[in-house]
Amino acid sequence: MSEERRDLRMPEDEEVFAEVTEMLGANRIRVRCEDGTERTARIPGRMQKRVWIREGDIVLVEPWDWQDEKADVEWRYEKSEADQLREEGHV
Q1: Which residues form the S1-like domain (predicted)?
Q2: Engineered SS bond to 77: which of 9, 32, 64, 81, CB 3.0-4.6 Å?
Q3: CATH of region 2-87
């Protein structure tokens, strides 16, 4: 278990944990962030075909500086990683 903990990516700078609540289409998703804000998040091109995001997934998002209701997805956690984050109390 301790080896897995080192592998998990934790939020940096402005990033926050979020849960995907709705798929909007056109590479956009609705997320509920840990700070209590609902945001529309954009899936960047580098993740579109490589990482499949579904409702209920835990992701890292970086809110936009100029529009707080929008964000960019930076990382998606696998189910086992998300369970570990919940067990450790991060999410």
Answers
A1: 4-78
A2: 81
A3: 2.40.50.140
User: CA 19, 17, 64, 21: dihedral to nearest 10 degrees?
Assistant: 0
**Per-residue pLDDT at 7:** 67
Amino acid, single-letter form, for residue 42 = R
* Distance between CA atoms of residues 81 and 27, nearest Å: 23
Answer for the pair 70, 40: CB distance below 8 angstroms, yes or no: yes
Confidence of residue 28 (pLDDT cuts 50, 70, 90): very high
Domain boundaries along the sequence of the chain: 2-87
Mean pLDDT to the nearest integer, 32-54: 90
Q: pLDDT of 6-22, one tens digit each?
A: 468 888 888 999 999 99
Q: Which two tokens mark 73?
A: 């997805």
Q: Which amino acid is at 89?
A: G
Cα–Cα distances in angstroms (integers) from residue 81 to residues 63, 73, 90, in the given order: 22, 17, 11
